[in-house]
Amino acid sequence: MIETLLFLPVILAVLALVMRNRTLNIIMTSAYAAVFMAVAVALYRSHAAFTPYFRVDDLNILFLLVLAAVFCGVAVFNIDYLKKNEAPAKSHALFTANLLIFIASMTGVILSTHLALMWVFIEATTLSSSYLIYFSHSDASLEATWKYLFICSIGIAIAFVGMIILSMGLNHSDSLFFDDLYAGAKNISPFWLKLSFPIMLAGFGTKVGFAPMHAWLPDAHSESPSPVSALLSGTLLNAALMGIVRVNRLMTLAGMKWYAENLLLAIGFISIFVSAVYIISIKNYKRMLAYSSIENMGIIAICLGVGGAGMFAAMLHLAAHSITKAAFFLTSGNILHRFRSKNIDDVRGLLRSDPATGWLWMLCFAGIVGIPPFPIFLSEFLAAKSMIDTGMIAQLILFLLLLTINMAGIGKAVLRMSFGAAVEAAGEPRGGLFSYLPQWVFIALLLVMGVSLPGFVEELLHKAAAML
Fold it and tell me: Which helix (H) or strand (E) holds 49?
């Protein structure tokens, strides 16, 4: 089953490049999304392996299911998006091929059992997603693409240096398989391990979007087509986070949990602070969503750093943020299609001019800032409780203050865009069912999770948290 997820998109990508047919591109993307979801569910029920290098476990199955859910929603949205996009056939073929390889690359990151192999796939996600960011062929998208390539490549190179340093400290074997690293964690030289972790945290953290290595993210997310923005925020950041989570587990087993936790807390608070500074006065609503992604990845880092119930909160927040942000970015695509502007001041009266988009915009806002009953409220509540349990009162006050600032900044923009008299729009509503259906399904899924977390989801989150 794993080989299907890895090799089928490569075959379909070649077919897309050869045929250059818009309808075929849509069919292949939708079909692969359906296959991906079916295989992910099957792997959840029966963990499997493909060679020693790819395996499903209690941690990565959560990441894989989140990827499957977001990809399915994006594939459905893509039906209307690609139909109405007027780019030439070659651009459509390249978009589809790179999208499929991008999904396969993220799958490789998630399922890798070897640190160096994971690194290779993370680099592959950078290369395959670059054209997706540049799809509009504008000057701004070209600049965003080069910034993305340059900064992320440096970050991945830094992570590679961290891996070399870790290898220098291995006394029991030269293997970088996670199982071997975990089994011999106590034998790794503490000096080299302490030196390697912050370097890998900075390297992989660049791709996650942690501040201050985040400079690529606002440009890439805001200049990408909305389906791509949804994948970048909802799945790519998670895939890069997998590298940090795996190495953080090694630190715990080596008896250096306190060291890793303090670094994660520091980078988490820096990320939330940076996002608060920009969000409170942002003018571009897609950049606002990008900075919100930085904030939420920072929250996950803080949950990991707090420990205890924070581990469960981290996994819940990861799933909830991915689904919410995917819905948010897809909805922003409908707004952009109607108003032909990313400027907050150019959009007014959404609830009157396009009620479906307006209500989705409001519900996504409620979901991302954690208004009950959305599940982000629960994950942030558990993070706060963990801080109280561990005596981090000062950190709790700062945490709540920064969350409030971010909520105020996003809320100010969303409310201004949603209410008031409708302004004349340069475009028209998308109108197609597929432009709205994925977001409504995502919102319904979030409400179910927030009101009464299904038993199998709770078990999935607990098992993933136990492996952190």
Answer: strand 49-50
Question: Contact, 229 vs 289, CB < 8 A?
Answer: yes
State the amino acid at position 311 in one-letter form. M
Partners of residue 54 on adjacent β-strands: 50, 112
**Backbone region of residue 51 per phi and psi (left: phi > 0; alpha: psi in -120 to 50; beta: other values):** left
Site of tokens 């400027």: 343
Residues 380-403, mean pLDDT to the nearest whole number? 95
pTM: 0.95
pLDDT digits (tens, 9 = 90+) for 192-234: 999 999 999 999 999 999 999 999 999 999 999 999 999 999 9
Alpha-carbon gap, residue 102 to 98, rounded angstroms? 6
| pLDDT value, residue 353 | 85
Q: How far apart are CA 220 and CA 229, in angstroms?
A: 8
List of long-range contacts for 62-65, beta carbons under 8 Å, 24+ apart: 62/315, 62/318, 62/319, 62/460, 62/461, 62/464, 63/110, 63/238, 63/239, 63/242, 63/318, 64/40, 64/107, 64/110, 64/111, 65/40, 65/41, 65/460
Give Cα 243 to chain centroid, integer Å: 13
Q: Give the span between the Cα atoms of 271 and 15, in whole angstroms.
A: 41
| Confidence check: pLDDT of 77 > 80 | yes
In which band, very low, low, confident or very high, does the pLDDT at 5 lie, cut at 50, 70 and 90? very high
Distances (CA, A) of 136 to 58, 92, 144, 188, 387: 39, 11, 11, 48, 44
Give the number of other Cβ atoms within 10 Å of residue 51's Cβ.
9
Domain boundaries, the chain: 268-468
Q: Is the pLDDT at 172 greater than 80, yes or no? A: no
